[in-house]
Amino acid sequence: MSKHQPTVLEKEFELERVILFSDAVFAIAITLLIIDIKWPEVEHVAGETTLKLVQPMMFSFAAFVISFFFIGRFWSLHLQLFRLLHKYNQGLIKRNLFFLFFIVTFPFTAAGLAGHVKSGFLLPLYLYFLNLAAVSATHFLLVRYIVRQKPLLAVEGFAAEKKYFYFRSLYMTIALGATFLLLIIADIIFDGKMEYVTWTPAFVAVFLLISRKKVKKYKPKDIDDY
Hints:
The protein has 226 residues and is mainly alpha-helical.
């Protein structure tokens, strides 16, 4: 018996299933971020200031906002990239799952930032920024696979747009990797003292602005970047 060859319509439906599955993973991950944000216990508040009581919640909410931004950003990039596809293979499926794995871990690593980061114990901070770098790196592997390694998976043309997606993903990965490296260096220099080390993640915005400026020269004039 000969093996069934999928029709064009079947292939389009299968690719749509890949996209819908990815969208579902993004939606679940971004929803789970809010679950770990709890109001503080207020049974015994004698001598406690309001700021001290809500401080853990404030850290949790800050982690939620940052994570929401990054998950939303990567969903947007994923959407733009998959608009270029007209077929898929197992290599694409595996790389997409690898990328989604690190999207799913966001709620766990974000939850570790609130009340768990202390001087001498910066593991939660390390894990969170390692998560960020890993998401960006696996997204870059996905982009490179589609644009450089298996260009036949994508629709013909759009060379400038594909080049822009490639370098945008590359520079973002470098920016987030540089933030993680800076965190390690600061930890070594300041011997894990939280008051000196925890400011280093603020440089993620600086590095991302630099990467955005670097990649601007590759951006086609007619592309909507959102």
